[in-house]
């Protein structure tokens, strides 16, 4: 097996080989192929990672000789030799999963140095200080990430930093002097002390053989695939463990040889707001790690023109080449060594939803991509970022800007400030809105960043850890707000004469980069203002226009329709404005949550005689009829699936003493009577209890009332010119006979209403498929049902035998153990529940070839589930009103 792929003069791989070579390795190969300047090297494949874990952390036998050939190839291209005493080859070792993954071991630089080669490097470069500084950094990095010499819980500082501080104190009486002040002698002494530290802590000598160093570093990369932070990250982004990581070994180039050198990170366009501009930053006389670590604040890339104009123009040329070749915005790392530019990495740039939208629209205009590709370039699960509120304009004008920073993640966020990730998580768990404020962030802060509404840092540029991660998560982020003085010990932030404590409110505008004191009210996104509130100013914004363009393309591509789950005329109006083509589910019991309607509902449930029940139903009928009329009107001729009552009893019973007393007073009956009925009706498993069509089977008068309400409303709406299309849906059907009995009532009432009102109503009757027996006997059920709608909430609950209400306590552990990748109540369990759906579709069509098929469980708004429904050949998905754009985008992506 081939485990090692070369890149350089001879390149084995290419950009399509990400599963095998990882993202970094595949793109290094691709850059070599298109003639960009890349230092030579090789990639060890992800298959070695898989082997490593399958075989007790050992390597395949053939690996060593292939690595030796890889090193030999670098030696031939550079004229240097690994471990050589005159012209030693030094390499970097970097991880490279399919997608870059914060939390994994990142980089070891200057590998190959030891007590002998350092002298050779000093002689060759005629720069002893440079050589010893490289060596000192190498021992420190390697000791930390490969040999595990790290801060212990009882220590305040990294152990290597403590050693440096002590030496500075001894020699200069000040542990805060800059590293650049250290002499060759100091650095030599540091290397000695570092090695001593390694021996004490790791219990072994620092490896001096370059080959031992290389094998150790590769092992550390593979080992880091399973560290906690990497696991947390994979879980959040659903990255399978079995993908594994590759390892890249590459000849070193130096950005820290003096003022003709430097390192930087850049994007071919602005990844925060999408503007077409060269975007990024660099540091003169620095290695790449210094730029992303956020320790020195770098300069914007445009200013490179003033320092090294030749290198700047070369980078502009590379920027254009990259976009033309990859046809997407690239995020790349470069090093300039003595004025010559080298590319160390390129990848598709992480971007906010706003930037993704603008890139996609602009690139179609520039003819870089077609409109179908533009649809795919907008991540469906990020789209709701565009619908998130922005600060209320009037409020923001009144607020005081206390600091400004870089606008790193657009949007508006207000919250209580916390200065540490654990406390931010704890506060968010209590339901507080949280802003995580840090001097700079590191991968340890990931949990806190996930929990926070927004992230604010005092240091670091637009490519700092905070900025990258925030953009990817769609968090609001302002970074490098250098006026903030953050004191972790006192838990305070001091800025322009004011001091804020943990728990105080701050607000940040990640579009402008502003920081405000206090809490600021928000206003709806321009898209919502434009579509739902017909706000003409909002409609004139670029954001609104781009969004509507994208939705137009989606409509052109889509086969699967998107309907909405709506219970009120207002929700219906919103959904139609977002492009819904009908209602897939009206939960009629939800119509009684409002105001004192619940009383009539409770009376109906508690009634213990037909007479009492009919009296309560008579009160419910006009409410329902009015609501249905409003919905038909808002739908403008689109169909409405009206689901008959399905009230899980525990959600509707008056359970508290107060509710019971209140209801007794209103009904003018003794409270004891109510208590008695509540007691009689109590269920141990309400979700499997007296709900769905079971209610109408036992009390047919309920079905009759609902049929009357729907059909009378339809009759009126029809007379008023609104073209209603009611689709009456009977829930929780497992037996054909259940449906037959209910449908008979509907037809009987329909005949009566049509005769009374002298209109012909265009209605259909169908059922939900939401219990396994319904799916398995769908051929029988389809004899009566004119349509099916998959109720995947209940179908998941009953297929998996996991309560939709009570699974929270163990689902987390299930996902951690990778028994299931995603929460099955959020994203369809395709192999299990999906199979039941497949059976129902096939059997339903056997009986009724043109049966209309939809889904109305919560899964209808989940992009992966929507794509699955497209594959199954459903007619529509139905989701909550604000998810409609997400579902439309996912449906279009499934079709292009
Ligand atoms: C379902 O079960 O998927 C469904 C849509 O119905 P409900 O959530 O009201 O039970
Ligand atoms: Mg259901």
UniProtKB/TrEMBL annotation:
It catalyses: pyruvate + phosphate + ATP = phosphoenolpyruvate + AMP + diphosphate + H(+). The keyword Cell membrane does not apply. This is Pyruvate, phosphate dikinase. The active site is at residues 465, 856. It comes from the Bacteria. One of its GO terms (molecular function) is pyruvate, phosphate dikinase activity. Residues 544-895 form the PEP-utilising enzyme C-terminal domain. Keywords: ATP-binding, Kinase, Magnesium, Metal-binding, Nucleotide-binding, Pyruvate, Transferase. Catalyzes the reversible phosphorylation of pyruvate and phosphate. Belongs to the PEP-utilizing enzyme family. Mg(2+) binds at residues 770, 794. Substrate binds at residues 587, 643, 770, 791-794. NCBIfam families: PRK05878.1 (NF004531), pyru_phos_dikin (TIGR01828). Residues 63-302, 313-365 form the Pyruvate phosphate dikinase AMP/ATP-binding domain. InterPro entries: ATP_grasp_subdomain_1, PEP-util_enz_mobile_dom, PEP_util_AS, PEP_util_C, Phosphohistidine_dom_sf, PPDK_AMP/ATP-bd, Pyruvate_phosphate_dikinase, Pyrv/PenolPyrv_kinase-like_dom.
């Amino acid at each position: 097996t081939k485990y090692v792929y070369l890149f350089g003069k001879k390149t084995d791989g290419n950009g399509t080989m990400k599963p095998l070579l990882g993202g970094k390795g595949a793109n290094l190969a691709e850059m070599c192929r298109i003639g960009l300047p890349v230092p030579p090297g090789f990639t060890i494949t992800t298959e070695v990672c898989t082997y490593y874990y399958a075989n007790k952390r050992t390597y395949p036998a053939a690996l060593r000789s292939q690595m030796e050939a890889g090193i030999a190839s670098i030696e031939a291209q550079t004229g240097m030799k690994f471990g050589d005493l005159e012209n030693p080859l030094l390499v970097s070792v970097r991880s490279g999963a399919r997608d870059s993954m914060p939390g994994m071991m990142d980089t070891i630089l200057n590998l190959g140095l030891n007590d002998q080669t350092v002298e050779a490097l000093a002689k060759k470069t005629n720069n002893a200080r440079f050589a010893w500084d490289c060596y000192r950094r190498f021992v420190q990095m390697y000791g930390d990430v490969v040999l595990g010499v790290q801060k212990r819980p009882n220590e305040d500082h990294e152990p290597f930093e403590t050693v440096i501080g002590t030496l500075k104190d001894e020699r200069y009486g000040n542990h805060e002097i800059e590293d650049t002040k250290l002499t060759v002698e100091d650095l030599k002494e540091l290397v000695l002390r570092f090695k001593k530290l390694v021996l004490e802590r790791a219990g072994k000598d620092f490896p001096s053989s370059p080959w031992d160093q290389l094998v150790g570093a590769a092992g550390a990369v593979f080992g880091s695939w399973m560290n906690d932070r990497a696991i947390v990250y994979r879980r959040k982004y659903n990255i399978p463990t079995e993908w594994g990581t590759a390892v890249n070994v590459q000849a070193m180039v130096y950005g820290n040889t003096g003022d003709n050198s430097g390192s930087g990170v850049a994007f071919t366009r602005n990844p925060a707001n999408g503007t077409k501009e060269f975007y990024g930053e660099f540091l003169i006389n620095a290695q790449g790690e210094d730029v992303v670590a956020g320790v020195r604040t770098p300069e914007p890339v445009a200013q490179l023109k003033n320092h090294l104009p030749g290198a700047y123009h070369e980078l502009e040329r590379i920027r254009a080449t990259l976009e033309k070749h990859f046809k997407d915005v690239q995020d790349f790392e470069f090093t300039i060594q003595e004025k010559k530019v080298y590319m160390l990495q390129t990848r598709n740039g992480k971007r906010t939803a706003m930037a993704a939208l603008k890139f996609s629209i602009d690139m179609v205009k520039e003819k870089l991509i077609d409109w179908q590709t533009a649809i795919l370039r907008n991540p469906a699960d990020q789209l709701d970022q565009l619908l998130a509120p922005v600060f209320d304009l009037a409020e923001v004008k009144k607020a005081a800007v206390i600091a400004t920073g870089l606008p790193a993640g657009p949007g508006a966020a207000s919250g209580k400030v916390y200065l540490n990730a654990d406390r931010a998580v704890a506060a968010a768990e209590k339901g507080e809105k949280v802003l995580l404020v840090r001097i700079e962030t590191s991968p340890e802060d990931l949990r806190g960043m996930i929990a926070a509404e927004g992230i604010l840092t005092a240091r670091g540029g637009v490519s700092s850890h905070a900025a990258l991660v925030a953009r990817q998560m769609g968090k609001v982020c302002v970074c490098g707000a250098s006026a903030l003085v953050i004191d972790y010990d006192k838990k305070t932030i001091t800025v322009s004469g004011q001091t804020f404590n943990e728990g105080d409110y701050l607000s940040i505008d990640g579009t402008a980069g502003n920081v405000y004191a206090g809490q600021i009210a928000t206003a709806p996104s321009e898209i919502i203002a434009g579509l739902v509130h017909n706000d003409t100013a909002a409609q004139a914004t670029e954001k609104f226009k781009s969004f509507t363009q994208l939705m137009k393309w989606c409509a052109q591509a889509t086969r699967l329709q998107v309907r909405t789950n709506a219970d009120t005329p207002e929700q219906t109006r919103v959904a139609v404005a977002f492009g819904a083509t009908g209602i897939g589910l009206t939960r009629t019991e939800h119509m009684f949550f409002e105001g004192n309607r619940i009383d009539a509902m409770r009376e109906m449930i508690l009634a213990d005689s037909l007479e009492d029940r009919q009296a309560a139903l008579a009160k419910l009928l006009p409410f329902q009829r009015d609501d249905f009329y409003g919905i038909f009107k808002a739908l403008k001729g689109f169909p409405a699936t009206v689901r008959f009552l399905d009230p899980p009893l525990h959600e509707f019973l008056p359970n508290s003493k107060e509710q019971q007393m209140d209801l007794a007073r209103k009904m003018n009956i003794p409270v004891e009577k109510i208590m008695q009925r509540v007691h009689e009706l109590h269920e141990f498993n309400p979700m499997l209890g007296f709900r769905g069509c079971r209610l109408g089977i036992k009390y047919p008068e309920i079905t009759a009332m609902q049929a009357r309400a729907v059909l009378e409303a339809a009759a009126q709406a029809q007379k008023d010119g609104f073209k209603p299309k009611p689709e009456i849906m009977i829930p929780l059907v497992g037996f054909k006979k259940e449906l037959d009995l209910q449908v008979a009532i509907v037809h009987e009432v329909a005949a009566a209403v049509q005769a009374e009102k002298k209109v012909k109503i265009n209605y259909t009757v169908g059922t939900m498929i939401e219990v396994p027996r319904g799916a398995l006997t769908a051929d029988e059920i389809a004899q009566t049902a004119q349509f099916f709608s998959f109720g995947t909430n209940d179908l998941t609950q009953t297929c998996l035998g996991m309560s939709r209400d009570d699974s929270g306590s163990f689902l987390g552990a299930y996902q951690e153990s990778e028994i299931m990748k995603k929460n099955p109540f959020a994203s369809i369990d395709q192999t299990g529940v999906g199979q039941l759906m497949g059976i129902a579709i096939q059997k339903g069509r056997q009986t009724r070839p043109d049966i209309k098929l939809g889904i109305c469980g919560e899964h209808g708004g989940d992009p992966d589930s929507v794509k699955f429904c497209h594959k199954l050949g459903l007619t529509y998905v139905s989701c909550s009103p604000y998810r409609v754009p997400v579902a439309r985008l996912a449906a279009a992506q499934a079709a292009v």
